[in-house]
Design a protein that fits this description.
The chain is 17% helix and 23% strand. It has six helices and twelve strands. The strands form two sheets. It has a ten-stranded mixed beta sheet, with helices on both faces. The protein has a two-stranded antiparallel sheet with strand order 2-3. A hairpin with a 7-residue loop joins strand 10 and strand 11. The radius of gyration is 19 Å and the shape is globular. The two termini are 25 Å apart.
């Protein structure tokens, strides 16, 4: 897979631009028949989300061409919201300004690392990177480099409307119509001075303008002991982890490798 580099014209000398790199090379993996549950959402102009998050969103999906704010920048919630992109026809996503993003956690939530582009540290050029990527991927996860001026947010909103890309922002965003956040959380797995954190129970709240104005809540495992997101009332295949208990070793799943069609990298064009 080629490495993409964004190039912008300028009359002034600019510092070196960060490389936009693919997380993983396209690998031949088995197809997932029956994973087109998001087609109905796409027909309604929505980006699909994982089933556990549908009840907390006003439209049971993310409205294409809009920005969504994740209050507090909760990385788990950010990844869980982005995981549904795999159900789209293209299935490509990008992460901008998130150098500490855990790729193993991203894969656990359901993101396809073969279709994830990363610009670790775009610095002050993050808005240019987002503008370029919006026409090439279905979803962008972003942590801006500082406060976002309303005029800049308005210009990027126009870019999103034209492209249909969804922007998930870790933190506040001017004029956003939908905000999500973790109201409360409780980790499980630590014993009496030993062990490791394996799962978290949270209450997720969504609020905003229009149909999101009255607010919605959902109690979730974010993540559960297997690194995925699911409703709290749903019973796992194994016994639920108990707080202050000895953690069970996390299972490592082997992924069979069989010939398949490699995903085609999206064409990224520079926008001046």
């Amino acid at each position: 897979m080629p490495v993409f580099e964004s190039v912008f014209e300028s009359t002034a000398e600019q510092p070196a631009r960060p490389l936009l790199r693919p997380v993983a090379s396209p690998a031949a993996t088995a197809g997932q028949p029956g994973e087109r549950e998001g087609q109905a959402a796409e027909r309604r102009g929505l980006l699909p989300v994982v089933p556990a998050l549908r009840e907390v969103l006003p439209d049971a999906g993310l409205r294409r061409g809009t920005a969504v704010s994740v209050a507090g920048g909760d990385t788990g919630l950010l990844l869980a919201l982005a995981a549904g992109v795999k159900e789209t026809e293209g299935g490509w996503a990008a992460a901008v300004g998130l150098p500490d993003l855990g790729l193993a956690a991203a894969e656990g939530y359901g993101l396809d690392l073969r279709r994830l582009l990363v610009a670790d540290d775009p610095g002050p050029h993050w808005a240019e990177v987002v503008s370029v990527l919006a026409g090439a991927v279905e979803l962008i996860m972003l942590r801006p480099d500082g406060p976002v001026p309303p005029k800049l947010a308005a210009r990027l909103a126009a870019v999103l409307r034209r492209s249909g890309c969804v922007l998930l922002v870790a933190g506040p965003w001017p004029g956003v119509a939908l905000r999500l956040g973790v109201r409360s959380g409780r980790w499980f797995g630590l014993g009496d001075g030993h062990g490791q954190l394996v799962s978290r129970q949270v209450e997720v709240v969504a609020e905003g303008r229009g149909s999101a104005g009255r607010g919605r809540t959902a109690r979730l495992w974010l993540p559960d002991e297997h690194g995925a997101v699911r409703p709290l009332q749903e019973q796992p295949q194994q016994e639920q982890p108990q707080p202050m208990a000895e953690p069970a070793a996390r299972a490592i799943r082997a992924i069979p490798v069989v010939p398949a069609v490699e995903p085609v990298a999206p064409l990224v064009a520079a926008v001046v």
